[in-house]
What does this fold into?
Amino acid sequence: MKKLLILMFMLTSLSQADDESAKVVYDLTTSSVAKFEKNILKGIAVNKTHYENSLRELEVAVVIHGGAYRFFVKNLDKTIFKKDKKLQKVYGDLKKRIAIMSDTYEVEFLMCGAAMKRNKLEKKDIVEFVKIVPNSTIGLINKQNEGFAYIPVRD
It folds into this structure.
């Protein structure tokens, strides 16, 4: 009887382990440095900490399109975004912080491949940790079908 109770407890604990994680996908289209910093760089860190303090995991994905391409280029001066004065001032710091989001916080970055040509970008222009998806809609559909909650970050 004791063994049966222990086995039932273990099975119940394992089935609840799946409920201990949360998932979110950010639909990132903003070109605003302030919004990007507040919602992505600071917001994700705060949310990750909250879930960790609750002994839960938070899986984060960010689908990049619209004005947000500018935050994920290797060299700003070789892109159409080089005239963005606000971005120029903070780009070095932003690049480091974005890399930390990928490495330390395990954020998955997915970029819409459909509009890269319109932004005069090729895969070689994008930071290495960003994955290219056929388009933003497919990226968002896939993540939402995997159980990710949807949060837009727009201008």
Remarks:
- The chain has one domain: 28-153.
